[in-house]
């Protein structure tokens, strides 16, 4: 049987496939392989902890991208939901001592609930107004975290003793075939496994009816209403899903770090998430992960090799005029600017360009 | 051509694996740790000649004002020590500095980055950052010296605090006010505190003093660090007729607070906790007001005081190893931390074990460490027997002095501070 | 005067002074938003930059304080316009989101530059105001607060006159209203965009220096105040300069009064509730009027 030309899509079903092309399948298999193998190859706790934080950030970024990239609702309040998830875990996983799946689900439920409370604001407010109101959420949240002392420990913060364990499987001390793996290795698998799971769920969500509805609402909500999409429902729904995922990220963050304080859920964290989804590419799940890797790993790389960069001061009283972090921040800023000027669709846009280039090869233009 | 693609994919996978294989060398540390008394075996952070110590400090960001001089203090002490041969006269000490930006998550990352290369941490700055690494310190059995005067640290065996905790400062300050400062327990004693852990530590001290001396705090105001408007709080304090206000703040807020008070012609006796002050305040427009109304409660002595041997040595060494260093008491704090850590290292070397366990064990066997008057003597030992210094020094503002501070009362201890009990963190 | 009344008036005055600073920053937000449709997150960075430049002019170059202010504003305006010219002009027609992110990028660039040049230490800007006070009618007024309020009034008046009566002001209004129609009339949109950024940056610098001239001095975190000016901008309506000024004053007063009566009226709401009052007020008002007090409603098409 004659094979169709590789670019040809002959049915909607084909267009909607999660992992249609052999390429996508191979890529997926490879990514799984890398995630499974990496902690066995990389033992360095620094890189593992960076990658764990990157994975946690990727989870949160997927949540934000559903809301902002797919549904078009700008939220600067993402840090609030992440914090809520972390505190919820401190109680459900730490104080009550419930196992991993339960505290993850509890965090998701709390996140969804809070999202359901905040969501209706999106019915009344649009665009930038919504963005700034959700910015208010950060400050109101911080006030709550400082004052709800029974739940959050107030200013002193609270330790999060949630066990990353379900039954005999303890991710803080994995034992596979007689080999014992460290806490960082275990968390790497746990977190990146969840990244894969949530990415899959999100991908599935956006390719089906609700996903199309979200995008219709994003593109023009009144037109969407006209064709029978209940824009209000989807806006609130998007808020709930997004904040549930954010809370899961917070739960992971809390249990990995084992201690959280009210200073951590600030505007900077929200901005970092916004940066990730924009740098990664709005409205792409894969882009959220790329963005998280970029935003999380770049500073770590600079930090690691800062001693070799001329003019950087790595120690007090040392040579150089700019500290590592300052350099980091400046590079980060410059990269964001450059990136968006050159490719406003973000990393995912670049990825897409590379892909099309090879798709049409050798007739690339 | 599916075959080609498959081959390509396989090749790429191999490449990725090859790249990731270059990842890292693992964290097992290696080495035996054990050794003979006086000549410890190699271990993580000790290669037989050089002992490496970690520093986790905000070297950038708003708190860098504290992190930079503190780390400089660490460094000057060890530079001096190395110039005399090093620990036990033969092992040089090297610092591995990492910037935490005062963020707990960054601190955890940086901790993971360097923990395999150091024997202990001679500085972890900030209460939230310390609490964030504490669980890992416990599992990894690592010793760290926290750079904050929190009472929580006293009973943690993985932490090596120096100096009298904030609570002690507050208790001593109020005691002084009641005995020599012109106050009585019927005076209106008030507080103005930053709404965070640091502020709460001061308030705990004031509450203890109130219990012991039997007065009630007339008015308590709080503020969020970095706000611009303090008129409301000052109004309230003035309205309550406060005669003494105990302040916990950081310098730039303290400047605004004193400025607002000066403008509002509100002039109680201010007793401010040590971090409220920085040298720049003595050169600012509020200096005259501060000279008239403010006392700073801290420890040690004024910068450059040649009567105190520790200060004389420190200034000489600072001039030698860090000539650009401005007078700063965070510098002295870092210097003291480094001395405490050196005492631990000497002990560990004497016992011939610089491994993590060896260092923890050494820290428990450490007796009283003296700081030559830079801060009160600290009795270490097992955590339950630890006894932090209960002494404080009161300073007045004097722009003519190097750091703008002049000693009012040197190294005094109140009974209430002596009897204050430090509890384990909950 | 009874002590209660004195306390009330003093709080109101503090609120006005704070509100004036908010108004200046919010006005900067609005100028950029109105003409280019972008929320400028770098406003806080420009504010800090202006303040540090002011410090350099008055401390290192020993210029008179008034001149320092003027030069700092000019320099900041130059930076603002330059950024627009070099970076943002390439972004015309791109999604507003990407442009907002670019302003965040600018903020990230400004901060480390400031600390690399001026360090982290608290600096004192030589200035004639500081903690000087004048007494009138039983009340004590801070000289700096009076100047801040006075400068704001002067700037806002000049601003409205400029927009109302000058040719270029008219061009700016036209561009904001309908860029394409304005272009067709021969108005240079490029020039309008650059001037908006210059004006906004100068306003930020002005706010920065008046803040830094207070007793707290100047530290890199001075830019944080721009965050509190967000509610001011939103409250008034994002595209309304008059709204920005009104919003600034309302927010400043609300914050100062809640702070002043924290003990008597708001102790149930937790310590320091005044910090979040601007945001709460903003949320409540937006729920009633989704486009702020004076903002224009979007006309939406299907």
TrEMBL record, chain A:
InterPro entries named in the record: ABC_transp_permease, LivM-like
Keywords (A to Z) from UniProt: Cell membrane, Membrane, Transmembrane, Transmembrane helix
Domain of life: Bacteria
Classification via CDD domains: TM_PBP1_LivM_like (cd06581)
Places the protein is found: Cell membrane
Matching Pfam families: BPD_transp_2 (PF02653)
TM region(s), chain numbering: 21-40, 46-67, 74-94, 100-122, 129-145, 187-206, 236-253, 273-301, 321-342
Membrane association type: Multi-pass membrane protein
PANTHER family given in the database record: ABC TRANSPORTER PERMEASE PROTEIN, HIGH-AFFINITY BRANCHED-CHAIN AMINO ACID TRANSPORT SYSTEM PERMEASE
Protein name, per record: Branched-chain amino acid ABC transporter permease
Organism whose genome encodes this protein: Actinokineospora xionganensis
Automatic annotation (TrEMBL), chain B:
Domain Leucine-binding protein residues, every copy: 50-395
Keywords: Signal
Signal peptide positions on this chain: 1-21
Pfam families linked: Peripla_BP_6
UniProt xrefs under InterPro entries: Leu-bd (IPR028081), Peripla_BP_I (IPR028082)
Origin: domain of life: Bacteria
UniProt cross-references to CDD domains, sorted A to Z: PBP1_ABC_ligand_binding-like
The family this protein is said to belong to: Belongs to the leucine-binding protein family.
Record's protein name: ABC transporter substrate-binding protein
Protein source organism: Actinokineospora xionganensis
């Amino acid at each position: 049987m004659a094979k169709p030309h590789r670019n040809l899509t002959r049915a909607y079903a084909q267009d909607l496939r999660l992992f249609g092309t052999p390429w996508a399948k191979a890529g997926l298999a490879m990514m799984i392989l890398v995630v499974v193998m990496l902690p066995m190859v990389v033992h360095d706790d620094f890189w593992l902890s960076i990658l764990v934080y990157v994975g946690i950030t990727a989870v949160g970024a997927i949540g934000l991208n559903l809301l902002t990239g797919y549904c078009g609702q700008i939220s600067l309040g993402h840090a609030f939901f992440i914090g809520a998830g972390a505190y919820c875990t401190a109680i459900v996983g730490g104080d009550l001592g419930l196992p991993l799946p339960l505290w993850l689900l509890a965090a998701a439920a709390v996140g969804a609930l809070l999202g359901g409370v905040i969501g209706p604001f999106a019915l009344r407010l649009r665009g930038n107004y919504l963005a700034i109101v959700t910015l208010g959420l950060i400050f109101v949240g911080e006030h709550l975290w400082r004052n709800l002392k029974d739940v959050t420990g107030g200013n002193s913060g609270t330790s999060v003793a949630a066990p990353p364990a379900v039954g005999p499987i303890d991710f803080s001390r994995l034992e596979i075939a007689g080999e014992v793996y460290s806490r960082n290795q275990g968390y790497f698998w746990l977190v990146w496994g969840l990244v894969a799971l949530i990415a899959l769920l999100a991908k599935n969500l956006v390719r089906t009816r609700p996903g199309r509805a979200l995008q219709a609402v994003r593109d023009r909500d009144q037109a969407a209403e006209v064709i029978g999409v209940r824009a209000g429902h989807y806006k609130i729904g998007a808020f709930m899903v997004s904040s549930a995922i954010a809370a899961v990220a917070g739960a992971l963050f809390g249990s990995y770090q084992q201690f959280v304080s009210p200073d951590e859920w600030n505007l900077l964290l929200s901005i970092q998430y916004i940066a990730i989804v924009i740098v990664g590419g709005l409205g792409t799940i894969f882009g959220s992960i790329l963005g998280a890797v970029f935003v999380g790993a770049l500073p770590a790389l600079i930090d690691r090799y800062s001693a070799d960069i001329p003019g950087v001061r790595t120690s007090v009283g040392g040579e150089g005029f700019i500290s590592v972090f300052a350099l980091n921040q400046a590079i980060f800023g410059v990269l964001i600017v450059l990136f968006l000027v050159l490719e406003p669709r973000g990393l995912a846009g670049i990825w897409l360009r590379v892909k099309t280039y090879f798709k049409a090869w050798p007739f690339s233009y | 051509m599916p075959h080609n693609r498959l081959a390509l994919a396989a090749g790429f996978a191999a490449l990725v694996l090859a790249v990731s294989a270059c990842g890292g060398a693992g964290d097992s540390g290696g080495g035996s740790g054990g050794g003979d008394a006086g000549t410890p075996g190699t271990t993580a952070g000790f290669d037989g000649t050089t002992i490496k110590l970690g520093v986790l400090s905000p070297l950038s960001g708003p708190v860098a004002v504290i992190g930079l001089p503190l780390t400089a203090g660490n460094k000057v002490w060890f530079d001096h020590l190395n110039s005399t041969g090093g620990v036990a006269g033969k092992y040089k000490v090297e610092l591995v500095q990492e910037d935490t930006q005062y963020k707990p998550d960054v601190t955890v990352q940086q901790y993971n980055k360097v923990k395999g290369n150091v024997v202990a941490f001679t500085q972890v700055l900030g209460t939230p950052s310390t609490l964030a690494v504490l669980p890992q310190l416990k599992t990894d059995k690592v010793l760290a010296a926290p750079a904050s005067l929190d009472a929580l640290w006293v009973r943690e065996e993985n932490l090596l605090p120096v100096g009298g905790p904030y609570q002690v400062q507050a208790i001593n300050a109020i005691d002084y006010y009641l005995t020599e400062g012109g106050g009585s327990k019927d005076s209106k004693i008030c507080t103005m505190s930053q709404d965070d852990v640091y502020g709460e530590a001061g308030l705990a001290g004031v509450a203890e003093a109130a219990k012991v001396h039997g007065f009630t705090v007339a008015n308590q105001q709080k503020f969020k660090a970095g706000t611009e408007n303090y008129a409301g709080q000052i109004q309230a304090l003035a309205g309550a007729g406060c005669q003494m206000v105990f302040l916990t703040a950081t310098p730039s807020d303290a400047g605004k607070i004193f400025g607002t008070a000066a403008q509002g012609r509100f002039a109680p006796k201010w007793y401010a906790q040590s971090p409220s002050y920085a040298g720049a305040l003595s050169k600012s427009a509020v200096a005259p007001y501060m000279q008239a109304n403010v006392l700073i409660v801290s420890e040690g002595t004024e910068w450059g005081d040649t009567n105190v041997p520790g200060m004389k040595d420190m200034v000489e060494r600072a001039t030698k190893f860090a000539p650009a260093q401005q007078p700063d008491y965070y510098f002295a704090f870092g210097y003291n931390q480094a001395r405490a850590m050196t005492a631990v290292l000497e002990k560990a070397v004497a016992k011939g074990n610089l491994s993590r366990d060896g260092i923890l064990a050494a820290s428990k066997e450490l007796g009283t460490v003296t700081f030559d008057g830079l801060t009160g003597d600290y009795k270490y030992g097992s955590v339950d027997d630890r006894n932090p210094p209960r002494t404080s020094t009161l300073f007045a503002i004097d722009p003519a002095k190097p750091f703008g501070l002049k000693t009012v009362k040197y190294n005094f201890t109140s009974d209430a501070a002596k009897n204050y009990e430090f509890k384990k963190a909950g | 005067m009874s002590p209660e009344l004195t306390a009330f008036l003093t709080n109101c005055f503090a609120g006005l002074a704070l509100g004036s600073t908010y108004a200046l920053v919010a006005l900067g937000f609005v100028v950029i938003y109105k003409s280019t449709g972008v929320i400028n997150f770098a406003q806080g960075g420009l504010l800090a930059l202006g303040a540090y430049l002011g410090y350099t002019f008055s401390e290192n170059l020993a210029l008179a304080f008034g001149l320092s202010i003027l030069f700092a504003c000019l320099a900041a305006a130059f930076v603002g316009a330059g950024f627009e010219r070099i970076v943002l002009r390439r972004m015309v027609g791109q999604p507003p989101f990407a442009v907002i992110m670019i302003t965040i990028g600018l903020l990230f660039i400004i901060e480390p530059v400031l600390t690399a040049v001026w360090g982290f230490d608290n600096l004192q800007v030589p200035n004639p105001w500081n903690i000087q006070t004048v007494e009138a009618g039983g009340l004590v007024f801070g000289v700096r607060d009076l100047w801040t309020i006075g400068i704001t009034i002067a700037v806002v008046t000049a601003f409205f006159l400029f927009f109302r009566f000058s040719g270029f002001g008219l061009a700016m209004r036209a561009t904001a209203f309908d860029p394409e129609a304005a272009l067709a009339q021969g108005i240079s949109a490029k020039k309008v965009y650059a001037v908006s950024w210059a004006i906004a940056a100068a306003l930020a610098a002005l706010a920065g220096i008046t803040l830094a001239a207070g007793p707290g001095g100047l530290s890199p975190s001075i830019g944080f105040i721009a965050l509190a000016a967000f509610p001011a901008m939103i409250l008034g309506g994002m595209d309304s300069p008059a709204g920005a000024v009104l919003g600034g004053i309302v927010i400043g007063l609300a914050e100062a009064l809640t702070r002043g009566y924290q003990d008597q009226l708001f102790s149930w709401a937790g310590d320091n509730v005044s910090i979040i009052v601007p945001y709460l007020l903003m949320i409540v008002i937006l729920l009633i009027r989704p486009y702020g007090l004076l903002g224009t409603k979007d006309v939406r098409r299907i």
